[in-house]
Design brief:
alpha+beta, two-stranded antiparallel ribbon, Nodulin_late_dom, metal ion binding, Nodule Cysteine-Rich (NCR) secreted peptide, signal
């Protein structure tokens, strides 16, 4: 039982950065859109700062 719980915690910690390139999961804190420029998105998407997080959204 405890091994399963540890596995879930590890997945929660490491899964979002893996999926950032494919989806619209935020992983960088920001105040302005300019702070998101270094974040890499999939081609056809742009960086936007919304609610204090950088997102890759359709252009």
């Amino acid at each position: 039982m405890t091994k399963a719980i540890k596995f879930v915690y590890i997945m929660i910690l490491f899964l979002p950065p893996i999926l950032v390139g494919a989806g619209e999961i935020p992983y960088h804190q920001c105040k302005f859109d300019m702070e998101c420029m270094l974040m890499k998105c999939v081609p056809g998407k742009v960086n936007v700062c919304s609610l204090g997080r950088c997102y890759c959204v359709n252009s």
